[in-house]
Design brief:
0% of the residues lie in helices and 59% in strands. It is built from no helices and nine strands. It is globular and about 45 Å long. The structure holds calcium ion. This is CUB domain-containing protein.
Length: 126
């Protein structure tokens, strides 16, 4: 037994960009257990229109209705709109939001992993 496997990884990153790219830790290899990753996207403008495109998502589904591991995307400024919160598989999913700050969260529990996710965001002020 390696105790290091039981230490959760908590990471917070700020992304000060109107465009960008985020992947789950280790992508395209399997993401680690016990992860809590947060990316705060700061567009700098409350009227920024942001499109998220999830090219690939493969997050372990649990046997019940809840997601033990999940990807979540929220508008946090102005507060608060949840644009997305899911596990499982999908490809080429588009989401649209508007605002100054968005939060992308990725949570994994202590067992069972998959490839994770690969997404971009693109902003405009039109
Ligand atoms: Ca898991």
């Amino acid at each position: 037994m390696y105790f290091s496997e039981f230490i959760a990884t908590n990471t917070l990153k700020y992304e000060d960009n109107i465009d960008g790219h985020i992947v789950s830790p280790g992508y395209p290899l399997e993401y680690p257990n016990n992860s809590n990753y947060t990316w705060v996207i700061r567009t700098g403008n409350t009227s920024a229109n942001i499109m998220f495109r999830i090219f690939e998502m493969d997050i372990k589904e649990s046997t019940g209705n809840s997601c033990d591991d999940y990807l979540e995307i929220e508008e946090i400024e102005p507060c608060c709109v949840r644009l997305f919160k899911r596990c499982g598989r999908l490809e080429n999913k588009n989401l649209f939001g508007r605002g100054k700050e968005f939060r992308v969260s990725f949570i994994s529990d202590q067992r069972l992993t998959e490839r994770g996710f690969n997404l971009i965001w693109r902003g405009s002020f039109l």
